[in-house]
Amino acid sequence: IHLETSSVIMRMLPLKYLTEAEPWSTCQQTGSAPINELVPIKGRLIEFGKPVTDDTFGWDNEYGYDQLNVKDFSTSKHVVSNQEYLAFIEAKGYQQQDYWTEEGQQWLAFTKATMPHFWLKKINNNNEEVYWQRNLLNEIPLPLNWPVEVNYLEAKAFCHWKNSQNTSEDKQFIRLPTEAEWLCLRDHVEGDLTTWQTMPGNINNEGYASSCPVDQFEHNGLFDIVGNVWQWTESAIDGFQGFDVHPLYDDFSTPTFDGKHNLIKGGSWISSGNEATKHSRYAFRRHFFQHAGFRYVESQGNELPNLAANHYENDVTICQQLHAQYGQAKTAMPLAVKNYSQQITDEVIKSVEKYQVATETCLDLGCSVGRTSFMLAQHFNQVDAVDFSARYIRHGVHLQEGKSVRYTLENEGDIVDFYEFNLMDVDLPCGENILFSQGDVSNLKGDFKGYDVILAQHVLEKNYDPRSFLQEVHSRLNAEGLLIVVSSYDFNEQQTSKDNWLGGLKINGENVTGFEGLSLALTPHFTLIEQQQLTRPIQINKRNFTLSFPHLSVWQLK
Hints:
Blueprint: H1 2-10, E1 38-41, E2 45-48, E3 66-69, E4 73-76, H2 82-90, H3 102-111, E5 119-123, E6 129-134, E7 139-141, H4 152-164, E8 173-175, H5 179-186, E9 218-219, E10 222-223, E11 230-236, E12 261-265, E13 282-285, E14 292-293, E15 297-299, H6 316-326, H7 340-354, E16 361-365, H8 371-376, E17 382-387, H9 390-400, E18 405-412, E19 415-421, E20 434-438, E21 451-457, H10 466-472, E22 477-487, E23 505-507, E24 510-512, H11 514-522, E25 526-533, E26 536-541, E27 544-548, E28 551-557
Parallel strand pairs: 11-14, 16-17, 16-21, 17-20, 21-22
Antiparallel strand pairs: 1-4, 2-3, 4-15, 5-6, 6-7, 8-15, 9-10, 11-12, 12-13, 18-19, 22-28, 23-24, 25-28, 26-27
């Protein structure tokens, strides 16, 4: 990879600093490009992920497993040539904003680009302006039958332009291929780097010190599936299910799992080693230049056959909650404390059994990232889980759908650890009987009613009007139902006006605690039947925790 990226930088150096050496030299074959045409490709079930038994090493992002059904599509026989791309330039493609994505328009405005980065203009003997191309080791008149080398934004704009040329009623969509579609094309090339006796393309430093004609290396009816230039895809890189960060290079992949780095596939004329293998997965920002070009595909609709993105959560507070609730699946808790969600669930079930309360329906308010809801779902027929923030709830939904959740947690300073888990890792069922919803506990919809148990987790101190919630919550319970309140009573004026605090106040010179304010609000409709102190550890980083002791009180409807 360093040879590859360094060569791109060298390609921008003045030629006087570079020396061509035999036998690795620039290709001498130039001429007119072949007419590109579409070739039908049969779709299939694509299974992603490099086997751990493979003959070669790989980066962490190559491992794991996923699968995706790819529909039939067509692909260009050749990667796009300089000649084919020149038509886009002559059609004023760089001046037509409609062809460019928003990101592409921003890049155009910043760079003022009017042609590919490695093209240049010179005056010929007839005093005419003509295109030339800068290669690694020389400049030559634009080789029309070599692949154009562009960034993703330019390749995408070309596809939009090509779509605009199609005026037929039975309109197909021209676009870049996805990683899954490229893997379908890769079926046309037998074997892999370790089994090739002769390189099947301009790759592995066994061809030229440059690109070469787009019709030189055929692979069962297609050309340049591997080698010559990398091929941009519509797939932003992400980890497969079961992805694990490798501790020896923990930030090789994860910084690119941001939806802004697109995969390039197939390798270039200078790609060797791991880069030249079938399972390699390298990705760059969409405005970056490599020795990269593209081919296009035609599909029936504009839906992309891509795996769903699963980025790492990096909001500090959410990550701390994920780790507190689920993190013990991967790391040993250094404190001899039962999981906080387990503590709450145990108290709920103990009260339900002791007071013989029905277990048909439960409302979990302040469900956060959802572990308590999944645990309660094993005891109730229906659990409605509500939180004020959709950013918390989405992780519960993600888990419910059988997917993995990824998050980061500070280790020390700028060093972070990466985590991934699913419900199987924490021995929890899928929670089909849970309905996750976003909601304001002080302004809940009328549909949230008829519950045997309502659990309110830390909603008082995060509520702009906790008293109004307490005054109406009885109307949402069934007869003799239970309200279980968990609170640390740490009200603050950023979230709750001081006029609405339940406690932590001096009134007429007397101390009023949060529990006293809670009792005052609930006593007209409830009877206090149990109370318990819980222990709640929150990990800040590898060596620091916060430890709090929330109060749990159980109230039965009169």
